[in-house]
Amino acid sequence: MQNQIWSREELILAFNLYCKLDFDNIHYEHPQIEALSRLVRRSPNAVALKLTRLASADPCLREHYKQNLPQAGNAEHSILQEFHSRREVLAFESELTLAKFENQTIEKKFREQLQGIYKLTGEERRSYIRTRVNQHFFRKMILANYHSRCAITGIDIPVLLGASQIVSWKKSSKERLNPQNGICLSALYDKAFQQGLIGFDENYCLILSPELEKDCSKPFYRQHFGQLAGRKMTLPHRGAPSQRLLKWHRENKMQPTVATNHAK
Fold it and tell me: What are 120-134's pLDDT values in tens digits?
């Protein structure tokens, strides 16, 4: 008979998959749920139920799907609260645990993300691994939140999508793995957002910087920017961008450009 109590490691693995899986894909036949069920030696139904209980403990999803979610227990509430208070630690622990259950080292599992590791030693090496692994986790989480579609254009080709940080990784350690600090954007708009050429207002509508508007007569502007100005981004059911952080982006990434224009 299957043990009804999930160990901490099992719960962490469920949390890891919950963060990386579009909520609409939480069902026992999904390949990632089947794969996790084999790792933890539980049925796909049991894994899917655990993920829906995590959703029930998630304030954003609980509000949206409140009629269709099972009741969350203390374990589900506790693991999400832990993520809120120590995101970087728990995200990395979840990846270490997953690698362990897959009989891999973290270096082997993330070899594509860790190509520069062999030049490093000691704490510098450990810090590099944590950073790259957590950045990978963040990307997976943001793409899942946005159904792997650009929030502006709807482009759904994964290799063209990025997890655009509102406040950069280097600027604030507190916001690094905050799901409300990420927006799924295709490559052009990701770059434009990071450079402060575009932003979003209090209604989540796209705004353009004066620097970009200087090119308003050019065909690329009309095609890729002008016709999208004022368009509301497609918001996720969980992890919608923080208005506090979007305001920071407008004031710190877009304002310097405005000041430069005025100085000219």
Answer: 999 999 999 999 999
User: How many residues comprise the chain?
Assistant: 264
Question: For residues 14 and 47, is the Cβ–Cβ distance under 8 A?
Answer: yes
The pTM for the full model equals 0.90
Three-class SS of 149-181: CCCCCCCCCHHHEEEEECCCCCCCCCCCCCHHH
- Residue 243: CB partners within 8 Å, gap ≥ 6? 202
Q: State the amino acid at position 189 in one-letter form.
A: Y
When mean pLDDT is compared across 182-191, 215-224, 229-238, the lowest value belongs to 215-224
Residues of the chain by 3-state class (helix, strand, coil), percent to 5: 60, 5, 35
User: Distance from CA of residue 121 to its chain's centroid?
Assistant: 29
Tokens 């905050």: give the residue.
178
Residue 202 CA to residue 247 CA, distance in Å, equals: 8
| Residue for token pair 């969980």 | 238
pLDDT above 50 for 105 = yes
Q: From residue 254, how far is each of 33, 205, 210 by CA, in Å?
A: 42, 15, 9
CA dihedral in degrees (2, 17, 13, 105; nearest 10)? Answer: 130
State residue 213's pLDDT score.
Answer: 85
